[in-house]
Write a structure and sequence with these properties.
about 450 residues, alpha+beta, Helix Hairpins, Heat Shock Protein 90, 3 domains, five-stranded mixed β-sheet, 14 strands, about 55% helix
Length: about 450
């Protein structure tokens, strides 16, 4: 597939084309003016020579005129200059040319059509700029061949062509260079914005230029600074709230638990207190998840960098979750396509798998088949796949954000932090969490080596 031209490239090529057209127009005007100047100069020389001959014939002195005609004819054996004097009456014509029909004024003559050269070489000039004048004593004409004018025209055309070509080439190369540079800077800006949108809020464009693109990039960086500050403040508030409420909730549970275990209390009261304890456990779990996520995103969790056998990890997680899956009526399986080992924290990776499996167990109607799959290779894939309802395509990008819960999952327990934790753990290990509908079902995969 051919890559379409970007706006920057089209603009650069358009500027280069406009420059080439302007240079062509300027060169054309210069060519016309130069040609006219040379033609006028040639005509002026011919007219001046004819007038000089006419002055030599004043007072009826034809000897001086004939001497000059003979002298001028002798100095042009190649026929590049023509001169002739045709006396009145039956006198013999003098000079190196025979003109078929006398004329007055300036005219362009063609050899063989308008004149015949006398004593010229085998390759006489093809055309002449001539000037004829009638005198009382006869008719005189002088002329010069237009080969010089044609040669100068060819030189001008060739020079202008080379100049225009080189100018167009250099302008195009320079325009393409500027366009490529602008494209690269815009691509960097897009990549940073895409990464920030994906959760890497600390990235910045950092364009140190002085042009409009640099000013735009600096404005975007300033906006990203404000965005990061707002996100940090919101996270800090939620973290502080979670931290401050953990102790009161723990004390409340300690106070309610003995009441729920007291056999002297009415059964209905004990059941209500038991439900309250379950709610407290869920709230405490949510606060714990908030604190874990905040510590991970702030870089406060120390990550072990050890070889982790993912096949063994899958086996351990399967054994841990198999009983829960069976109790909920699901079929949990493990499939090792190819073993793989990555460097990372085994406990955190295990937590990520537990979260993915727990999501599948809670959101898939029973009975569902849930597969924990590992495929090693150039890109290691560690995935949890199910045959449940999946996630709407429009929500795939946002379900990994904190506290996001879809309408279909409102009736199930949860805090909306599971996928956010998995996504953070994946990033800490240089991996990527990839969510995709498999029709039916959902595939939640950790891709190692994807970046």
């Amino acid at each position: 597939m051919k890559r379409s031209l970007t706006w920057s490239m089209r603009f650069a090529l358009a500027i280069s084309a406009v420059f080439a057209l302007a240079a062509l127009a300027a060169g054309g005007i210069a060519y016309v003016l130069q040609y006219q100047e040379m033609a006028q100069r040639l005509a002026a020389e011919v007219i001046s020579e004819t007038n000089a001959l006419a002055l030599s014939a004043r007072d009826g002195d034809l000897q001086d005129l004939t001497d000059q005609v003979a002298a001028r004819a002798s100095v042009s054996p190649d026929g590049s200059q023509i001169v002739a004097f045709v006396p009145v009456g039956d006198g013999a014509a003098q000079g190196n040319v025979r003109v078929y029909a006398p004329f007055e004024g300036l005219r362009h003559l063609q050899t063989g059509y308008d004149l015949t050269l006398i004593g010229a070489n085998a390759n006489p000039p093809e055309g002449f700029v001539a000037y004829g004048m009638s005198l009382p004593e006869g008719w005189i004409v002088t002329g010069r061949d237009d080969a010089w004018l044609s040669e100068q025209t060819e030189i001008l055309t060739t020079s202008f062509g080379w100049g225009l070509g080189l100018a167009a080439l250099f302008s195009t190369v320079f325009a393409v260079f500027i366009a490529r540079r602008t494209e690269a800077r815009i691509a960097q800006m897009e990549a940073v914005l895409e990464a920030v949108g994906a959760g890497e809020h600390g990235l910045r464009i950092r364009d140190e230029g002085r042009d409009d693109v640099a000013r735009l990039a600096q404005s975007v960086d300033a906006a990203l600074d404000q965005l990061e500050a707002g996100i940090t403040a919101i996270r800090q508030v939620s973290t502080d709230v979670a931290h401050d409420l953990r102790a009161p909730l723990a004390r409340l549970r300690l106070r309610l638990e003995p009441v729920a275990m007291d056999a002297t209390q009415p059964k209905g009261t004990r059941q209500e207190i038991g439900k309250a304890l379950e709610d407290l456990d869920q709230i405490s779990g949510t606060f714990d998840a908030i604190l874990r996520l905040a510590r991970m995103q702030a870089g406060m969790v120390e990550i072990a960098h050890e070889p982790v056998d993912l096949a063994a990890l899958c086996g351990d997680v399967f054994e841990m979750m198999a009983a829960s899956a069976e109790d909920m009526g699901h079929d949990l399986r493990v499939e090792i396509v190819a073993p793989a080992t990555v460097t990372g924290d085994r406990a955190l990776l295990g937590q990520a798998l537990v979260n993915l499996i727990d999501n599948a167990l809670r959101h898939c109607p029973a009975p569902a088949r849930i597969t924990l799959m590992l495929q090693g290779g150039a890109e290691t894939v560690l995935a949890v796949r199910d045959d449940g309802p999946g996630i709407p395509e429009a929500d795939l990008a946002r379900v990994r954000e904190r506290f996001v819960r879809l309408e279909a999952s409102r009736a199930t327990p949860g805090s909306g932090l599971g996928l956010a934790l998995v996504d953070t753990i994946a990033r800490l290990h240089g991996a990527e969490l990839h969510l995709a509908n498999t029709s039916p079902g959902l595939s939640a995969a950790l891709l190692f080596g994807a970046r």
